[in-house]
Amino acid sequence: MKLGDIYRTAVAKGVREDVRSDAEIQHMLAEAKHTYEKLDAEEQPYFDKERLTNPYSDTRICLGDPDLEVRGLITGIDMEVGEVLLADRLREKGAPIDLILAHHPEGPGYANLHEVMYMQADLWAAQGVGIAAADALIAPRAEEIRRHIMPVNHYRAIDAARELGFASMSCHTPADNSVNAFVLRHLESEAPRTLDDLVKSLRHIPEYADGARKGYGPIIVQGSGSGRCGRIVLDMTGGTEGPKEALDRLSAAGVGTLVGMHYSEEHRKHAEKLKLNLVIAGHISSDTLGMNLVLDEIEPQGVEIRCVSGMVRVRRDA
Ligand SMILES: [Zn+2]
């Protein structure tokens, strides 16, 4: 499978599982086009043209010709310099590895991670939060994340991949959209009554069962196990943790339980005040599930997949 096809397959999967409507996504791409066309010649080289066709700023080919034929890839949640060196050792031993596929973005995807956060407003709006309040809440938080990421050495692992002759790609929000949609469908079908039931229901998914056996299974961090879930909302996509004020709005809109990958202590305390239940499904296990759902569309095209850095491959029929 060509590198460009792997990339386009991942983006298309993300769009199919996106909480936003197709019309909203098309509007976003059209806005990017408009922005690009308005730039003067001096500014245009600095515009990331992938924005014209890909709504996910955290998903990019970081390195490599899109026409490169990928026989095999190595993937993991974090693919840092250590994993790049590991890939090189495995290749020395004969493993066909042409591509390093990271979940947490590297390079351009990392530098622009904050841009995907704006989709959180649409997630909240779908739960009954006014879109004006949602837009106003997410903007300062996304800008805060942008300033936080700015000083990072974004290209270290990509520079290592270049020196060792690998292609490199990040796939973040398409995987997070996939896990968000998959777990929502799962919980809708199992309809857990209490938070204890919810934790058990999550463990029916192999990636969470594996996490539970390894010591990082689904856990209630706010609320009592015998308490009822009420309306469950999945909170697993949109770049990274949003502002804690969003919890007030969701609670006021009638949400009973949020299921996320991780919550800060500040969020947990805020949820406690609001009497809003919080369940952590697990960070690495959720990321793994999302990546597996994307890889289910890539592996059948003849790409050999090796997993490291927290990933355990579980296959599902497409
Ligand atoms: Zn993650």
Question: Could you characterize what this model shows?
Answer:
The chain has 318 residues and is of the alpha/beta class. The chain has two domains: 3-173 and 287-307, 3-Layer(aba) Sandwich (Udp-n-acetylmuramoylalanyl-d-glutamate--2,6- Diaminopimelate Ligase, Chain: A, domain 1); 179-284, NIF3 (NGG1p interacting factor 3)-like (Udp-n-acetylmuramoylalanyl-d-glutamate--2,6- Diaminopimelate Ligase, Chain: A, domain 1, 3-Layer(aba) Sandwich). The chain is 47% helix and 13% strand. The chain has a five-stranded mixed beta sheet, sandwiched between helices. It has a four-stranded mixed beta sheet with strand order 5-8-7-6, with helices on both faces. Helix 8 (173-190) crosses helix 13. It is globular, with a radius of gyration of 20 Å. The protein starts with a helix and ends in an 11-residue tail after the last strand. The mean pLDDT is 95. The protein binds zinc ion. Zinc ion is lined by residues 104, 283, 287.
